[in-house]
Amino acid sequence: MDEDKRITLDNLSVRYRGAEDAQLKNVSATASIGQIVGIIGNSHTGKSTLCRVLAGVIPNIISAEITGSCEVLGHSPVHEWPNFNSLTGVVLQNPAGQLSGLADTVADEMAFDLINQGISEDVINKRVANVAAQMGLTDQLVQTPESLSGGQMQRLAIATAIVTQPTILIMDDPTSEMDPLGRQQFFHWLANVQSTTVFIVSSEIDDLSEIADRIWVMDDGQLVEQGTPQAVFNYLDADRQIPKPTAYQLAAGMNWHLSNGALPVTPSELKEAYDGKN
Amino acid sequence: MAKIELQDLQFAYPGKSFNLAVKQQVFADPMTAIVGQNGAGKSTIFKLLTGLLQPDTGIIKVDGHDLADFKPVDRLKTIGITFQNPDDQLFNATVKREVEWSLSQVNDDRDANSQQADKVLANVGLAEKAAENPYDLSLSERKLLTIATVLAIDPEIYLFDEPMISLDSPSKLMLTQIFHELVADGHQVITITHDMDWVAAEFGAVCVMEHGRIQFTGTPRALFGDRGLVERVGLLPPKVMELTSMLGDSRVYLSPEDYYKQNLGK
Amino acid sequence: NAIDPISKLLLILDMALLSFASTNLLLEAGLITGGLLLLLFSKVSSTTVKALGFSLFLIFTMLVIQGLFYSKNQTVWFSIIGINFYKEGLIYATTLGSRVLVIILASGFFMVTTSISENAKYLEQSGLSYKTVYVLMSVCYILPEIMGNMRKIQQAQRVRGVNPQKTVIQKLKSVLPVLIPLVIKTLDQSMTRSISLQLRGFDNPNRKALKSTNRYRLVSGLHIGLTFAAIILIGWKLWTKISGLL
Amino acid sequence: MDRKSVGGKVSSDIFKVVLTAMFIAVTVAISRFFIIPIPMTHGNINLCDAGIFISALLLGPRVGGVVGGASGFLLDLISGYGQYMWFSLIVHGAEGLIVGLIAGKHADRKWTKLIAVSVGIVIMVIGYFVADSVLYNLYAGYVGIGTNLIQGAVGALIAYLVTPRLRKRI
């Protein structure tokens, strides 16, 4: 495969200044362009740090000792910042903290990045309308950002990240404050995202298994499993204390196997295994 | 178990169109979940129960006594609440002192408070962190700490506002375990949550809210059996039911275990 | 909306200075009517009404206190249930109250006619660095957010037994449990926000200041005229003070 | 967010810019919630000095000055004490600037802190004495000295209690 179309982490370690332990320890992983990579793991296992490295926040904004290499589609977030920054859209954990703090309305907030890039007003208006429609915020465009609910705020944060049409999208637990319907819509939207490479940290195991091309499992700063959702959840050690998808649990209890012998992790796989059994 | 009763409760925020109206409601099950979309009035009920808001009309009774007559200390000992965001309440220099501070609001005996704090911290798995600054803990641990500050006082009734948000999966298991222990000890637990899988698998009663009204109270099995209602109030059934209905089975299943029980060996 | 923000500020300054320079109640009344008219012709918001209500209450307490205790009180004007209100004090308090009202009305006019983003755009266009504009203007947006955080923290602490409502001691005791979470939360949010602003291209050199949608008339003329008026007023006030001393 | 791992490692111009704006807002917010009106001076006792001292001690003279001036101004504007706002801009601004200057790089030392904050209080008290005298009369000015001293002392005490806990997080 062409080297420019891959995401490669090679022996990546990160230690924050003044901290005793490394946050990331010898992480090596690969993924390809256009894939959705789901990152899972328990609290304090390095998921957020990994996101920060992929986004170039470490070491460009937060200083840290970093060894090993990180190449994203032929660019290095470590060495090619701010060039790399223009390719990425980032959604951090705390949605309210990501607002610019200088916008009358939701529409102004979405336009902030584009104004900073010096894009013309016509283009800005078009893109804002388009993104608002995607995120279901069209009715909220004229409201003030503070008046939004937690879930809407998260959708606004996502909107501000995708309005610049990034080729790489990095999201750290973007649905924590959404209600079930909002979350369902979000993952539905994400499944239909085209020509964008997505890294997403989430604890929504079921939704991730359905839409992700790769799953990376973090534990204590190390990347302990990586592969397709089916492969990862079939081999994941129960000691990791990470829940399995409901489809997997159902099939495991009922002994419904796929033709390749593995247990299903997505609804369609479950259907396949169920039909094969009955 | 203490019993909460709402009678002809009415509340409206000044200047907003939202109003809450509950004619008659008894929280009879020891483990009740309050569910509904954002803005349905779930948090408003909690604020009324904790006295942060006063009802416009109607009364709230705990074991037959009007809540408005409770002294502040008695109220703390009767109803304890944890909010969604742990960072809104942590301010002491160490984890242990945070718990002790809560205890000092109801009890002056320092030694007893210190012992109680140690016991509770061990209970939520934070014993090793007792001397650390609360803000050095992970989000999941901070959330457990705020829960510990309430557990320490050991009120009769526990209110939890979205306890599962920002907990990782081992902590979720631990909290569910704690809930069952509380219920076994004769406490009542009332929880606001969006997590339908959890509600279906663990709770005895569900109370559905929409636009400031209580639309349904009953068992999870009854709720999820009424697909029309579930859809109308903007809820999703538990994931296991989404899967089984895809497989052409329209019965109610509350968890994968529930499915095995009903289908294995047939 | 044809007046630019700086001219409006200068206008406020002029009105305030004029009301301080004079002790003539008729002039004060005129200024108050002027301020009221300005406000009515723009748009009256609920916040201005609230602010006005509060200052009227303040002025009322002023009238009572000065009417009773003003040091130059001599002539009894009227009495209520045996308590004497003096003419000198009441007149003095009316003068003070009018000044307060003039300032508040003029400021209210400024606030309702100028949106924050209009100010921000104007300041950026007039050559201020974007960072300075950000500090000055983002406060207006951050404030409601912080107030919201504060309310949430207060509630969370109140159900733990903190009661800030009754005595001054209780109020003081409730300061730390609210202040510390608030400041730490703010630090946290500042960090997220500064990371996010950088990611979103805050210091991008390509940034183009947005064209303000309002066209201002007579900008330089107004500025010069109003500044000149302010200087004259200050000069006049100083001169009367000095000549009073001589 | 994971504070232990990140605290104190973000350093940039933008961080200072954001912090300044945020601290102005925090100062106004806390002052709004703990405000005791004083009818005799037609003013009030509030906690804005605590916020100003904290900002000046933790973040230096420039931030201290801006936070002081802007929060004093805004606070008066929105609390209905509009007659004070221009005075507050100057008085509190000078207060924050000077406290930050005196505390300088040794804001951890007890005595430096104490001296800096005392000078700050003196500036504030004198400033408002002038303001009260101009706005009303000398009598109001004298009454103000007392209440402003109390306000300054309370602010200093709170800043003293809070700053050590925050220092390592910036």
From TrEMBL, chain A:
It comes from Lentilactobacillus otakiensis DSM 19908 = JCM 15040. Its main location: membrane. Belongs to the ABC transporter superfamily. GO terms for molecular function: ATP binding; ATP hydrolysis activity; ATPase-coupled transmembrane transporter activity. It comes from the Bacteria. Keywords: ATP-binding, Cell membrane, Membrane, Nucleotide-binding, Translocase, Transport. This is ABC transporter-like protein. GO terms for cellular component: ATP-binding cassette (ABC) transporter complex. It is found in: Cell membrane. CDD domains: ABC_cobalt_CbiO_domain1 (cd03225). Residues 7-245 form the ABC transporter domain. It is a peripheral membrane protein.
Automatic annotation (TrEMBL), chain B:
The keyword Chaperone does not apply. Residues 4-236 form the ABC transporter domain. It holds the Pfam family ABC_tran. One of its GO terms (molecular function) is ATPase-coupled transmembrane transporter activity. Keywords: ATP-binding, Cell membrane, Membrane, Nucleotide-binding, Translocase, Transport. One of its GO terms (cellular component) is ATP-binding cassette (ABC) transporter complex. Belongs to the ABC transporter superfamily. PANTHER family: HEAVY METAL TRANSPORTER. This is ABC superfamily ATP binding cassette transporter, ABC protein. The lineage of its organism: Bacteria, Bacillati, Bacillota, Bacilli, Lactobacillales.
UniProtKB/TrEMBL annotation, chain D:
One of its GO terms (cellular component) is membrane. It holds the Pfam family ECF-ribofla_trS. InterPro entries: ECF_substrate-spec-like. The chain crosses the membrane at residues 14-35, 47-64, 84-104, 111-130, 142-162. Keywords: Membrane, Transmembrane, Transmembrane helix. This is Rod shape-determining protein MreD. The lineage of its organism: Bacteria, Bacillati, Bacillota, Bacilli, Lactobacillales.
